[in-house]
Structures are given as C-alpha cells and as structure tokens.
Amino acid sequence: MLNGILWILRTGAPWADLPDRYPSYQTCHRRFQQWVRAGVLRGALEVLAQALHDEGYLDLQETFIDASFAPAKQGGASVGKTKRGKGSKIMAIADRRGLPVAVHIESATPHEVTLVHATLAQRFVKPFPVRLIGDNAYESDRLDADLARRGVELIAPHRKTRTSRTQDGRPLRRYRRRWKIERLFAWFQNFRRLVVRYERYAENFLAMLHLACASFSCEVYEMASSSYVSVSLGPNRLWALCQNCA
After folding, report:
1. In-domain check, residue 41
2. Sign of the CA dihedral 109, 112, 118, 121?
3. Are strands 85-94 and 80-82 parallel, antiparallel or unpaired?
4. For residue range 44-70, what is the model confidence (pLDDT) as tens digits?
5. Most distant pair of Cα atoms in the chain: their distance
6. CA 81 – CA 205 distance, rounded (Å)
7. Is residue 21 part of a domain?
8. CATH number at residue 187
9. Does a structural domain hold residue 16?
10. CA quadruple 30, 36, 42, 43: dihedral positive or negative?
11. Which domain does 143 fall in, by range?
C-alpha cells in the first residue's frame, strides 16, 4: 500500500491511474487520508530524523534555508497570487549533508524572511540548528536578533542597497556551500506530485512533502553507511514506522 502511495508521489499521476499491481486506488487514497489526519507521516519522519541525528548523519552545525514555488491548479488553503500565478511556497531547511531538517508550506504571497520562524517550528528534531545560512533575501537585522536569542547564528550576505555593513566576511565563507539546499529542491523535483500542487487541502500536500523527505532520507542514509548501525532504514523500515505511528 505504501508503494502505491509512493508511485503517486513519484509520477504525479491521478489516484485513479494507479496500476493494478498495487491495491485499488480507493484503498491507497483512503489509507493516505487516514495517515494525514492522524499525523502518521509526520511522526514517522520525526522518528527517522531523530535516528539520523543520533547516529551522527544529521548535522545541525551548519544548515541552509531557501524556498521554492509550486503552482496550485486546484486552489485551496495556503495558496496565494504572485507574478508567476497562484501557488504555494515550499520552505525547507537542509543540514550540512543536504538532508531535510524542516519543511513548511505557505501561501506564495508572503516574503521568505517572514516565514523563517514558522519553518524552524516545523523542524523534525528538537535541537535548533547552530547556524542558518541563506541568500540575501534573509538579510534582516530583526531576524538576526530574534534568532540570536534562540542561539542560532544567521549568515546571509548584505543586499547591494544596504549602506551600513555589519556582516563579517569570515562566516560568509560558509555561504559557498549553499548549493546543498539547491540540491535538496532538485531532489524534490524527482517527485512529480510536488512540482505542481494538485491537492486542494494544504495538509495533503504537506504530507506528500513529508513522505518525499522520508523516502530520500532513507536512500541517502543507506548510501552513506558502509557498515551496520543500530537503525535499519530501508523501505520496510519506513512502512514499519508508518504502522507504529498510526
């Protein structure tokens, strides 16, 4: 059943087009809706992220933040108008290895700098990141001060129009590795259900995003691990996590 939901996530096809090798699309869709209402996919992702953090594979010493636009064909909650049309904004934070630390969806209308706190609140592990690195869209003295009170160092280059320069050039060297958050969004593009938002309900779209994060977190973990560790994170493990969180 999980494989049927993953097929929908990967291909972006309508539920009714689910191949016969999987359970009926009504059964898969009904189970997906049950998991969404019960917060199963979010819970499974939190367990997975905590396991990665405990094993040392999720590094919060250096994290990166950015946003992407997903056009929304059906409208619904968390949909706003932009010059590119109506859609939703996907906010994401990646760790030093490019693994997802937090994801959040919002209307495409608000500026990214106003969504940082909401994105941090949706992180999958309890500790705050030590450093948060973004482009000049996140350059804000107020945001810098707010994050500093939480023990988070904000690193973002100044805008060209800024007159008073306060950014130290040494921390900005970490900005060179911001390509890792771009790679995370490139991974998201492999899941066609996330490229265009067809879900009218925001919680369904967010659940698909959580499932995508869990899926390639498992894949990255398995590729990075060359020896046995205390946590097994294959597809069977992901199904077991969903069952335990249900």
Report:
1. no
2. positive
3. antiparallel
4. 889 888 888 888 888 999 999 999 999
5. 63
6. 18
7. no
8. 3.30.420.10
9. no
10. negative
11. 49-221
